[in-house]
Design goal:
3-stranded antiparallel beta sheet; Serine Threonine Protein Phosphatase 5, Tetratricopeptide repeat; Arc Repressor Mutant, subunit A; 4-stranded mixed beta sheet; alpha+beta; 7 strands
Length: 237
């Protein structure tokens, strides 16, 4: 059944792919899902560029045909979702995308005047872009999205540390470390958070786990700065 032309479109790309119209779930085939997702993540795109992006190993004429077929299905089954012109395609302004809202929330989290909110830890932990999608263009967007999540989590952890909440500092930094395990800055924040609360054992354990990972994967030691942090709590123990 063709959806009504009125109402709010809601597109979720974080944690799963889901499209709703006026709160009602709409079933969409995989080819159309990818066209819609690409426009949501990348914005307005020329038709030829979009076809090449979605079908990179396909001859140009066939890729263009695949896009035309997908576009016909979208405009027929999901009227009002897209804005089309002779040369380019875009999502309609009334499509609300959770990924775009995440960007806005991250900007707020990173703003110097914004107080840290514990709810943002779980939000950023769960805001995984299109899990299970392995197209090259999606992987590139996933990496960019993960970098933004990681930096926001580090910013959040530093704010918690500055406000005297070492426990939540370590929690936020732990999520950041799970995104990029070989990055030292989240581990340093984990250690600092635990030390600030007097919980030396989890600080030592985080350091030792990170040192073992660095040794196994890269054959290097943690930085002198991180080692100095640990030395301060191990002297005399």
């Amino acid at each position: 059944m063709t959806p009504a032309k009125q109402g709010q479109w809601d597109l979720d790309l974080l944690g799963h792919w889901e499209l709703r119209l006026g709160g009602e779930l709409i079933e969409v085939a995989p080819r159309q899902q990818r066209i819609i997702a690409a426009l949501a993540l990348l914005g307005t795109r020329p038709r030829g560029v979009l076809a090449e992006l979605l079908w990179p190993a396909t001859p140009e004429s066939k890729a263009a045909g695949n896009l035309r077929t997908g576009m016909w299905k979208i405009t027929h089954d999901l009227p009002g979702l897209l804005c089309t012109s002779h040369d380019s395609l875009a999502l309609a302004p009334r499509v609300s995308v959770d990924w775009q809202r995440m960007q806005e929330r991250i900007c707020s989290i990173e703003a110097p005047t914004t107080a840290p909110d514990p709810a943002d830890i779980a939000f950023l932990e769960n805001a995984v872009l299109l899990p299970g999608w392995y197209d090259d263009w999606v992987i590139a967007e996933q990496e960019r999205s993960n970098t933004r999540r990681l930096r926001a989590l580090e910013s959040l952890a530093r704010k918690f540390l500055a406000s005297g909440d070492g426990t939540r500092c370590a929690e936020a930094a732990g999520v950041a470390a799970s995104i990029e395990p070989l990055r030292e800055s989240p581990v340093q924040l984990i250690v600092q958070g635990h030390i600030s609360t007097g919980n030396y054992y989890p600080a030592l354990r985080a350091f030792e786990d990170f040192r073992a990972l660095l040794t196994d994967e890269l054959g290097v030691e943690p930085s002198p700065r991180l080692q100095h942090l640990i030395a301060e709590i191990t002297v005399g123990r």
